[in-house]
Specification:
Keywords: Membrane, Transmembrane, Transmembrane helix. The protein has 20 helices and 24 strands. The strands form 6 sheets. The chain has a 9-stranded mixed beta sheet with strand order 10-9-8-11-12-13-18-22-21, sandwiched between helices. It has a 7-stranded mixed beta sheet with strand order 3-4-2-1-5-6-7, with helices on both faces. It has a two-stranded parallel ribbon with strand order 14-17. Helix 15 runs antiparallel to helix 19. By secondary structure, the protein is of the alpha/beta class. About 40% of the residues are buried.
């Protein structure tokens, strides 16, 4: 009992001393110089004792005190020239070793030159040549030993101080990158990660060590190897350097790592770090975006630049996920002027701050305006006379628009009509509309409103005298956008679950916001007018699989730590999305990720009249069902799913709409003029 109490007391004393040492600030430079000169004096004293014990005659021109002062003055001069004191001792590197070596070598050369010069005039030496060589070696050795001692002591105290709190990780790969990464983590006392070994899929080199860390072979049955390594080294996770592995390779390793009960961390390549000391800040749990198998997007930057540089550009919905990213990417192409327009004040302010900080030379203005206010929009068009319009303003949440169809039609359809008509009236070169795969055979009001907007833009292109090129881009879900499934799942996992999935078999296409906007800009340069460009979204992803993987990426177990609940399809939601309507076909373009759809065109007068009547309806006191009837009449492929409007599709004939504003909407389904295949 007494022995245990004594050990506890000693451990507390050690911990107190250790924490005191670690909490100290860096030594001031004058103190480093004093310590170094003291070590040099000690080296000189040792040299004198050694010389006295060997049969070497030492000159007696100066006293020992005078000799020591002389050599310390020379030493101080060389320290100043080579700035040996400028580094932080606990973080000494090869550069510091190089400086000390230069200083020590310079001291030897200067003293030897001075010694021989003095001897040539007086016939006597001040120092023995052997003594100077011995002193140089001893002083260099002591200076190096001091730095190594401080560095290793600090590292040891840092490790012991936080060895229980740091995550023990296995660094994947044995390359210069992974070795440098491990070295940085070991040398960083504030890093929450502690490398314990390197993992290699090669059978070579597994008996070697690097920085006293073993290289462990992990090939063949990777899962079993990882389980064995986890138990032996008490490892908690595996660190991947993101850019060194392909997505399939990364997926394979991640699955095996999860199966072994280990967490997965990811970091960028070192050249993407701001500074080496920030390495631990760049390490984070692997994100689901990193595991989606998509080929990298390549765009023709020169073509886009020639299309946008020197142009006056409008981005509607510029504070949203897509519109905001479009504005950021367009800014890099140096337009003559850019107007970012949105009706969301806070989000628009954030975009304003971003552009001001990152593009200080960009001529731009942020306009707080609503695309449904025709007078306000006409004033903006009249003021700037835009060359290119990117129309991203839209309401996008399916259940919300299902319950508020008036607002969905007002923004998505009527707003598009106002902006597109103004672009035509004011002679814009190009109008690029951002649409969605939900407009294809729509099963909800939101998709139908976007399809109606597509139909109007395509019909407007056919109107005689129209010179504006109207281009529509159509793609699926974007990763990380406002209200998308990934941030939603992250928040649910953070709160301890449950994670809610609407159906076990529901699948969706995904693309990053950056990728989608790159393709929008590229497609905008390709259109000749009237086309719908469809993006290759890669492989569809099963949402349930995504939820399970995101839970694993958080270091938790699906169903055990975080429950997953199947809640049923939401209003207007379908199991899978399509990219082409009936009657449409797709052809390839010169860009492998962009296809052009053959479109079904409608008569402009018919579409315009239909929208006039629909506009009257959404501003009248009528039931929502009457509005949806009219929308279904305009968009005949609109078939509601999981919605209160399903019964409207069971009617044998669409309901006639009475005369509105002096015009009657035809009761028959709109007939296409002809099908046209885009070039």
């Amino acid at each position: 009992m007494e022995k245990n109490m004594k050990l506890t007391f000693l451990n507390k004393q050690y911990a107190g001393v250790r924490n005191f040492v670690l909490e100290q600030n860096f030594l001031p430079r004058w103190m480093v110089v004093i310590i170094d000169l003291s070590l040099c004096l000690f080296a000189f004293i040792i040299t004198i004792f050694i010389l006295r014990s060997v049969p070497i005659t030492t000159p007696t021109v100066l006293t020992l005190i005078e000799k020591s002062l002389l050599i310390l003055v020379v030493q101080l001069l060389c320290f100043s020239v080579f700035r040996t004191y400028s580094g932080i001792i606990r973080h000494s590197t090869f550069t510091d070793v190089y400086r000390i070596a230069l200083a020590s070598g310079s001291v030897f050369l200067l003293t030897m030159i001075g010694n021989n010069a003095y001897a040539s005039f007086t016939g006597q030496h001040v120092f023995a040549g052997t003594g100077l060589l011995l002193y140089t070696c001893l002083s260099f050795g002591l200076l190096m030993a001091f730095r190594i001692l401080v560095k290793e002591t600090y590292r040891f105290l840092s490790i012991t101080a936080s060895q229980n709190s740091k995550k023990r990780i296995l660094v994947f790969g044995v390359s210069d990158t992974s070795i440098g990464l491990a070295q940085s983590l070991i040398g960083d006392a504030h890093s929450p990660y502690r490398p314990v070994a390197f993992l290699s899929t090669s059978e070579k080199g597994h008996n070697f060590k690097i920085m006293d860390l073993p290289i462990l072979m992990c090939c063949g049955t990777i899962e079993n190897d990882l389980k064995r390594i986890k138990e032996k080294y008490n490892a908690q996770g595996v660190l991947l350097v993101g850019d060194t592995l392909s997505v399939p390779e990364k997926n394979n390793i991640v699955e095996k790592t999860f199966a072994a009960g280990l967490e997965v961390y990811n970091t960028f390549m070192p050249e993407k770090w701001d500074k080496l000391s920030d390495v631990h800040l760049k390490i984070a749990p692997l994100q689901i975006e990193d595991l989606l198998e998509r080929d990298p997007i390549e765009i023709d930057s020169n073509l886009i630049s020639s299309d946008l540089q020197g142009k006056t550009i409008l981005v509607t919905g510029g504070a949203g996920s897509i519109g905001g990213e479009l504005a950021k990417q367009i800014a890099a192409f140096k337009p003559k002027k850019m107007i970012v327009l949105d009706n969301a004040e806070s989000a628009l302010h954030a975009i304003d701050l971003h552009l001001k900080k990152n593009f200080p030379k960009l001529k731009y203005q942020c306009y707080l305006a609503d695309v449904t206010q025709k007078g306000r929009m006409e004033g903006i068009f009249a003021k700037f006379h835009f060359d290119v319009v990117y129309h991203a303003a839209a309401y996008k949440h399916v259940p919300m628009i299902e319950n508020h169809p008036r607002e969905g039609i007002r923004i998505n359809t009527m707003g598009t009509r106002i902006v597109a008509k103004l672009a035509c009236d004011y002679g814009c070169e190009r109008f690029v509309m951002i649409s969605t795969d939900k407009a294809v055979n729509p099963s909800n009001v939101m998709g139908a409103t976007k399809r109606a907007a597509e139909m109007y833009v395509q019909a407007l292109q056919r109107k005689p005298g129209v010179t504006t090129k109207f281009v529509t881009t159509r793609f699926g879900n974007v990763l990380g956008s406002n209200g998308s499934v990934i941030p939603f799942f992250k928040e649910q996992i953070k709160n301890g679950g449950p994670v809610t999935v609407t159906h076990k078999d529901i699948i969706r296409y995904f693309m990053t916001i950056q990728e989608a906007c790159q393709l929008v800009l590229q497609a905008g340069t390709m259109g000749k007018g009237g086309e719908i460009f469809v993006f290759d979204m890669g492989k569809p992803v099963r949402i349930l699989d995504m939820a399970e993987r995101m839970i694993k990426l958080s270091g938790l177990k699906p169903y055990d730590d975080i429950p997953i609940e199947i809640t049923g399809l939401r209003e207007g939601e379908k199991l899978y999305e399509e990219l082409l309507n009936a009657g449409e076909c797709s052809l390839t373009t010169f860009h492998p990720k962009i296809m052009v759809s053959g479109v079904v065109e409608y008569d402009y007068e018919y579409i315009s009249q239909a929208l006039n009547n629909l506009d009257i309806l959404i501003n009248k006191v009528v039931k929502k069902r009457e509005i949806i009837k009219t929308l279904k009449q305009l968009v005949p492929e609109f078939k509601s799913q999981n919605s209160v409007y399903v019964d409207l599709d069971l009617l044998e004939k669409p309901v006639d709409v009475t005369v509105l504003n002096g015009h009657t909407l035809p009761s028959q389904k709109p007939k296409p003029i002809h099908a046209k295949t885009g070039n």
